[in-house]
Amino acid sequence: MSAPSTTEQAVESLRPNVYTFPPQDLIPDALIIAATTKVAEVEGDAPVAKAPYIDVGEAGFMPEGDEIPENELDSFEAVIATGKIAILTKISREQYKQTGGRQLLTDELKRAVIINADWALLTQAAPPAGKITPPPGLLNQDHTTGDEIEDNLDPVTDAITQIEAHSGTADLVIASPLSWAAGGQAEGVRRVQQVASRRR
Fold this sequence. Notes:
This protein has 200 residues and is mainly alpha-helical. The protein has helices at residues 23-26, 31-34, 93-97, 101-123, 154-165, 177-184, 187-199, and strands at 48-55, 74-81. It has a two-stranded antiparallel ribbon.
């Protein structure tokens, strides 16, 4: 009679102890999910994603019957450094099976990852010289600084206009809770709210 094969004796691929899930399913409310675009799934030891982009030149009107000239296709590559945010904990089987224990652990792990990921997206310091990871946060990258918001939201309007005037798309405004509150109290916002109230 052959000996039974137990879990501990089986090769690791038959008893995996690591499971991965799409981050957009696990932490859909995270700012880093809402404010970024997924370009690749990074595997292995090279923590970079290479995103190609091209320039096909300009389109224009052509007289009927004229031969359409060919444009040169210029291709480029953006090398995007990535970083891994992880947390590891342990809990006994008895604790895990307690009423609400599984959900409590899951929610707290999600919260820890969201806080760290969102904080890194905004404020992560640039890596040391010669290193590319972890990538710097938005506030530590080169960017254009607009006017300060004081009594109205005109600087926000100006910033959006500048982005779209250069063929960009301004589809997201990121603000801290305190900044959001200050913006909501600006004169222009109050006027809009007053008009909306009168129309109800």
